Each structure stands twice: as C-alpha cells, then as structure tokens.
Amino acid sequence: MKKIALLILILTFCKNVKAQDLLKSDSSRYLNLRYIDFYRQNHPLSYIAPLGELGAKNKYVFTSRLSTSFMILGTKGSRLAIALVPDFTIRMLDIKSKPVYTPDFRIGAAIYYRLNRDENNYKYATLGFMHHSNGQDTIQRQVVGTLNYKDWDFSTNYIYGRYNWGRIELDSNVIRSSINHQLEFKSNGLFDSDDVIKGDYGFTRIGYSFSYRTYSYFYDLLTKDDKDNNKRHPSREDDQKGWLNKERFRWNLETSYAINKYNNYNLFAVKRRLNIEATAYYSPFWMRQTAFMLAAGYYGEDPYNIYFKDKYAWVRLGVAVGFLKYTAKAKTNSYESQGLN
Predict the structure, then answer these.
(1) Most CB contacts within 10 A, which of 31, 200, 215, 332?
(2) What is the CATH number of the domain that holds 35?
C-alpha cells in the first residue's frame, strides 16, 4: 500500500513539474507550442474582392482566395512542425454566364523548424512542396499569339525554402506591435512542366516579404461596451473573461523576381520578371479574425496559372480572414495568454 501511495506521489510531482515547465516562456516545450502561432499568423490571409483586380485585362465579378494550413504535426515535444497547405484562387469573369474557366489550385505540404529560443525575437525556417495547376487536361497545342484562357492546360510543381524572423514589442504581457520578415527561394527546375510555359515562365524566383502589425487591448464586445482603448495599461487583476489582445492593423509588402532564363527577356527585364504588391488590413474590434483589405501592386507575370503572360498594375479591395492574433488573458498568476484561433 505504501509503495502504491509513493508511486502516486511521484507521478503527481512529475506531472506538476511538467505543467510548470510548460508555463515557462524560455522552456522548449512552451516555445514549440508558441511558434505554431507564428507559423499560422505568417500564413497568407484568405480574401474575397468584389470586381477582382482593377486594372487587369479582364473584368471580374469577384476574385477570391482560400488559403490555410492544416497542422498535422505540432507538439510541445518537438521544434519540428508539419502542415498540409491548400491554396485555391478563383476569378469569376464578368461576361455571360459568369464563368470561372480555369480556377487556380495549389496544394502541398510544409515543414517548419524553430531556430532559436526567443519568442520575442523569433526565427524559423520552412521547407515546402506545392503542386500548381488549373484543373484542365486539354491536349497541348503550339502557342500562337494569345494564350487560350478558357481551357488550356497549366500545371507545374515547385519546392520552396523560407527564412522568417521578427520582433514582438510588448507592454507587460500584452503585444502592442510586431515587425515580421520573410526571405524565399522557389524553384520549379527539378520538375517537369507543360510545354506551354517552358522558356516563358518564372520557374525560379527569389522573394522578400515585410509585415508590420499593431494590436489592441480591449474588453470583449459581448461582456462590456468598448469604452476602453489602446492606451489602457494591462493590469494583473484582469482575468480571462473579456480582456482581449487582438491584431488591429497589418501592412504587408511582398515582392519576388524571376531569375531563370526566358527565351525573349534578359535578366534585367524588370517589367516581365517583377511581381510586387502592398496590402493594408484593418480589423475593427467587432470583426474578430476578419479585416477590411486594400491592396495595390504590379504583376510582371500574373500568378493565376495560364494567365502568366499578362502584366499589369492593379488595385484590389475586399474583406480578408485568417489567423490574426486574437487571444484572451489567462486566469493564472503566471500572466500567460492563450490562443483562440
């Protein structure tokens, strides 16, 4: 009987030690879970944009992108995480019957690896694979003049490597702002592709992304009028019910440049090789993980499958949704926060 009681005591002690270790912000177990938030929050947002890309050669009813990451491995015991990544875009043409013709399908997987032990100055690397196609299987034909957007086949595969790093600015345990960077190398060179894109497509691209985000700290709409504002200093007496640390504003800059050989363009053909866009997101307190979106950019190579020959400046307005930071205060005296996404 004494041995059983001693065993129970030892197991209880070990459980409490593990629980305390998980709450420590510098423990590996805590950081492995915390970094999953970074992987998800740095994932591209989904959106719907009435009228689509204003400035494109076609007129659209809307453009919509649905992108997410399914974390199939993300445990406190490993700094490695794995996700399945579907990324679908459609453009509904503003013509008779409102067709989509060639939706843009990308699906693949990503492996994330935490590189350091500092959640306020995070660093991680990503290795991923994507299949990119438009869902068509029309027999290939010689390209003469303008491409057939209606039913020509487009498909390719690519791998990518990314290095992400950023800095989080805190007021006590409340996040006020963050600066986030990403370097990317993407290449289709290891895989076969349709003849229609060979010699005239950006198979290898280098890219850089920057994202500045601000966060608010306020009382939940469901429990109190939103009379408290961003200037309120967090109090240790705040409990889990009501007080929220929420992303309010995000400004993104994304750019990429094709560095592989083109049949008819040299390495300095910026108008053909460069893609660049800037996007502003604003999320009022009542929109939770949804935000208003305003974007502008230039496509030297339209990323929408068979439309790759199109180059134009554009503007996009709409509503976006994704893994915006949205956390509530925890009840414990350890003053931690918990994710709600």
Answers:
(1) 215
(2) 2.40.230.10
pLDDT digits (tens, 9 = 90+) for 61-105: 999 999 999 999 999 999 999 999 999 999 999 999 999 988 999
DSSP-assigned letter for residue 54 = B
- The residue type found at 158 is Y
Q: Measure the CA–CA gap between 29 and 20, rounded to whole angstroms.
A: 11
Structural tokens at position 232: 């309120």
Residue carrying structure tokens 């490993």: 78
**Could you tell me where the DSSP H helices lie in the chain?**
2-23, 28-41, 270-273
d(CA 165, CA 25): 18
State the Cα–Cα distance between residues 204 and 330, nearest whole angstrom.
45
**Cβ atoms of residues 271 and 302 within 8 Å:** no
Half-sphere exposure of 160 (CA within 13 A, CB side): 28
Residue 141 near residue 157 (C-beta atoms within 8 A): no
Answer for the pair 102, 151: CB distance below 8 angstroms, yes or no: yes
Cβ atoms < 10 Å from Cβ of 290: 18
Look at residue 11 and tell me if it is in a domain. no
Single-letter code of the amino acid located at 274: L
With bands split at pLDDT 50, 70 and 90, how would you rate the model's confidence at 243? low
Distance of CA 78 to the CA centre of its chain: 22
What does the radius of gyration of the chain's CA atoms come to, in whole angstroms?
24
- The domain in which residue 289 lies consists of 20-339
Confidence at 204, pLDDT banded by 50, 70, 90: very high
In a domain, 12, yes or no: no
Q: What pLDDT was estimated at residue 24?
A: 57
Residue 290 contacts residue 283 (beta carbons within 8 Å): yes
Task: Please choose, from the candidates 328, 286, 301, 303, the residue with its C-alpha nearest in 3D space to the C-alpha of residue 106.
Answer: 303
